[in-house]
Amino acid sequence: MFERLLIANRGEIACRIIRTARRLSIATIAIYSDADRRAMHVELADEAWPVGPAPPGESYLNIDAILAAAQASGAEAVHPGYGFLSENSDFAETCEQAGLVFIGPSAAAIRAMGSKAAAKSLMGRAGVPVVPGYHGDDQDPDTLGQEAQRLGFPVLIKASAGGGGRGMRIVHNAAGFASALASARREALSAFGEDRMLIEKYLERPRHIEVQIFADRHGNIVHIFDRDCSIQRRHQKVIEEAPAPGVDQQRRGAMRKAAVTAARAIGYVGAGTVEFIVPPDASEAFYFIEMNTRLQVEHTVTEAVTGLDLVEWQLRAAAGEKLPVRQPELTLSGHAIEARLYAEDPEQGFLPQIGTLDRLHFPSPELARVETGVREGDGVSPYYDPMIAKIIVWGDDRSAAVSRLQRALGETAVLGLRTNLAFLARVARHPDFVGGTVDTDFVERNRNIAIPGERPVPDAACAAAALYRLSRREAVAAASAASSPDPFSPWARSDGWRLGEKAAWSMTLRCGVEDYQIEITRRDGERALKFGDRHLTAALEMRADGLGDLTLDGVKRRVRVLDDKRVTAVFFDGESWPFEEVDTLAPSIGEDLIAGKLTAPMPGRVARLFVEPGAAVRRGAPLVVIEAMKMEHTITAPADGVVAAVRFSVGELVEEGAELIALAPPERQQQR
Ligand code: ADP
């Protein structure tokens, strides 16, 4: 076994590899970009070497710099993780030439599967069923158009070099073909540097089912069961599970066999995934879409149902060891589900978000395995994938796993930027998901899961926020009284006590665009709350970790309350309600704006503008979209205000730090 391993990656996957390597007594060497100097993977590794500036092209994709770090640090092997260089055959080859063991398949195997078009032809020849389509060399738009006609609409245009759902367009009729082809080509060229396209029959409401395979250097290949990854947005997975639910044994067996055939056809070594799409009917049909020649993000669900450590298997196979088991010895137990928590805004087409994870709370290890590469206080930068964590649950059967997932998401809380947490929680509660009826159209069909529309703020959220803030005020008052020369003076009290009057407090809490004026009075150890025409009796007892027992008109429930300088957020049932206390006498602008992000977070291009000078905006309203690193980032209003100036127009390039928009305090209503 190796003694020194370099991990050519970052974030949660680097952390996850480090943990296994450490258990096997392998010294770990991390690499990091300028943006990651204090990142968790750097802290966790035994050593860490800088490889360049923040943009991935100059650091995590910089083969020369990574190789130099590997050699200087005395690494014997390189684990590429996933993403970045994990499927780059040149990198695999360069490592081997430099005498470093690449933890993955041969450069030839990566190359064979690197082009979707070539992979499909290869699989077709090996007898693995592929989606009917055109994978030819003739890329003339007319030829492609004729092939689409021949297949019959709807068709899917795909970039041959594609990944991450980019360069992909669904076309429903001949009239829309030419423009969809042109725009898919543009996107592919910008994302992958080439625009070769293939045309496929578009299957309606298919499932995405994939088979984990594993091979050693001695010709042994096993499959490690299947996963369903049908819950997707933008053709990208967000919830995955193992095994795939409700698949007929015949079909399942045939898919597993086809996956092993596919791996054998290219002399595969290591961990790989063969992906299929499966029509919704009860036939036995399934079609190969691609093979990923690396570990997948969702490998954790396979680990959960088999008890294996796939990173350990990868390291052992790369070191030349034989597979420790034969196919019949592999057994599957229970059901596992993974949910990917992202810094992204479901209400804006799942656009990635950037910012600071001011508060972060994950479920306990008894409830879920959490894989993450960030800690409370860390930033989510525009440079890399905005995934915050993977939350993985296991249960004796699928329904036990689903209810654990619901609980685990309910125990998760993030404050500081927008996430898909509530979206995940709504998927986990949706009757179709609960019943195991999943397909890749699920998110599109259930748009209200991503965009729930107006949600009334529950009384429980309002009450918890008000009582929490009140207890904070009281704590501050008690502390200042204790340090004053006359701690018992009524003047030092700020608990609402008044001579000859009932204690009463008042505060205004803002949630979204709604303001809640709340009156609180003390009543026998509990509080009486009044907001609008509602009268409630409430008590809040806080425990560790932000967990609290809220009693509302006698009914007790668990809530989590987290706060940072500005916001107090109440979490329950996987939903969250952030409140800001509004000082109705003070102007609502100031500190907010100074700390605001109205400058370009990185060099890029203005892709969209939502406002014009003079427009009044509420806090959180989208102002401008910057396209950078092939991704879009929305800049939102940090406070209520009026747009004083827009410094750039759509299409213009902006430097990092350039001011995009000037925001002025909101105009006060004129008193007459
Ligand atoms: P990428 O490499 O960009 O991830 P894939 O080829 O793996 O692209 O496909 C991603 C997703 O797109 C699939 O999981 C599936 O949801 C959808 N998809 C791919 N091919 C088809 C098809 N022929 N019909 C319907 N949906 C498809």
Helix fraction, binned, reads 25-40%
The CATH class of the largest domain is identified as Alpha Beta
- Looking at the overall shape, the CATH architecture of the largest domain is 2-Layer Sandwich
Largest sheet: 8 strands, antiparallel
* Unreliably modeled segments: 588-596
Please count the helical segments.
18
Mean pLDDT value: 91
The named CATH superfamily of the largest domain: ATP-grasp fold, B domain
Strand fraction: 25-35%
Biggest sheet, strands in spatial order? Answer: 14-13-10-11-12-15-22-20
Alpha carbon gyration radius: 28 Å
Which ions, cofactors or small ligands are bound in this entry? adenosine-5'-diphosphate
Question: Which fold name is given in CATH as the topology of the largest domain?
Answer: D-amino Acid Aminotransferase, Chain A, domain 1
Query: How many structurally independent domains?
Result: 5
The assigned structural class equals alpha+beta
Strand elements, count? 38
Shape: globular
- Rounded to the nearest angstrom, the distance between the terminal CA atoms is 82 Å
Walk me through what this model shows.
- The structure is a single chain.
- By secondary structure, the protein is α+β, with helices and mostly antiparallel strands.
- The protein folds into 5 domains: 4-103, Rossmann fold; 133-201, Dna Ligase, domain 1 (2-Layer Sandwich); 207-450, ATP-grasp fold, B domain (D-amino Acid Aminotransferase, Chain A, domain 1), CATH 3.30.470.20; 459-581, Glycoprotein, Type 4 Pilin (2-Layer Sandwich); 597-671, OB fold (Dihydrolipoamide Acetyltransferase, E2P).
- It has 18 helices and 38 strands.
- Strands 14-13-10-11-12-15-22-20 form an 8-stranded antiparallel sheet.
- A hairpin with a 2-residue loop joins strand 30 (567-572) and strand 31 (575-582).
- Helix 4 runs antiparallel to helix 5 and helix 12 packs antiparallel against helix 13.
- The chain is globular.
- Residues 588-596 have low confidence and may be disordered.
- Adenosine-5'-diphosphate is lined by residues 131, 156, 162-165, 200, 202-203, 206, 208, 232, 235, 275, 277, 289-290, 440.
